[in-house]
Amino acid sequence: MSLIAILISILAILGGFLSLLGSIGLIRFPDVYGRLHAATKSATLGVISIMLATFLYFLFAEQLFMGKILLTILFVFLTAPVVGLTVSRSAYRIGVPLWEQSTIDELGKKMNKSKKKKKEKTAVE
Known about the structure:
This protein is mainly α. It has helices spanning 3-28, 32-60, 67-93, 106-124.
C-alpha cells in the first residue's frame, strides 16, 4: 500500500468520523443554536475531508485533475458556515429561546443596541 493510498484512507475515515460527530451533535445538543453549530462545523470539515480524499484519488490513481472537486471544496467551505450563521440569527429574531443553562447572550446585546438606535432615529424624524 502506497503512502498516497494511506493518506486517502485517513482523509476518508476522518471525514466519515467528523460527519458522524455532527450527526451525534444534532441529536445531543439541547437547543437550536448548538445543533446548528454541530451541523455546520463538523459536517463541513467532514465533507471537505471526503472531497479532498476524492480529489487525491483521482489525481494519483486515475491521473485526472478534477478542478470541479476543488471548486466544490471552496463552495462548501464558504457557504456552509454562513448558512448556519444566517439560520441561527433568523431563529434568534423570531424568538427561539436559548437553552436555559446558557450564560452568554452576545447577540441579544447587539440586537438591543440596534433597536435603541432605530428608536432614536425614528424619534428624531
